Amino acid sequence: MRATVVLRPKAGILDPQGEAVETSLRHLGFAVAEARVGRVVDLEVDANDVAEAHAAIQRMCEQLLANPLIESYSIQLEGDR
Amino acid sequence: MRATVVLRPKAGILDPQGEAVETSLRHLGFAVAEARVGRVVDLEVDANDVAEAHAAIQRMCEQLLANPLIESYSIQLEGDR
After folding, report:
1. Which pLDDT tens digit goes with each residue over A16-29?
2. Which of A18, B22, B43, B72 is deepest in the core (most CB within 10 A)?
3. Is this model's pTM higher than 0.95 or not?
């Protein structure tokens, strides 16, 4: 089952990469008020159903993919939109 | 206007970060067939309408955000889903 996890820096958390992107875009002449940079992880997971896959991916986020102190994550599963 | 740009390594392009994630998830006991890691950029753009914002973000991708040789990108605008 294909899944996509989007990880974003939490509101209020410093995001130097986003600030660099924002500054560079302004220097290029773009009217940008804010830029925040996160990560996207596309996964192919072996699971029998959407609920099982969702539970597994949540554990993956807690154990490896996300830093819960500074990042929030959302999970999208194919066939679950 | 809020926008989200998702940048992914193109198919066939080596993705060492994705391979590291895949290996680590397997070591943790997860049944993962593939993992690919990309970036997500959340932007607040000054634009009068969706078409103008989309055109501006496309130029941002070409000039700064994406490496078109190895990355593909998709643009999502609020109010354009």
Report:
1. 999 999 999 999 99
2. B43
3. no
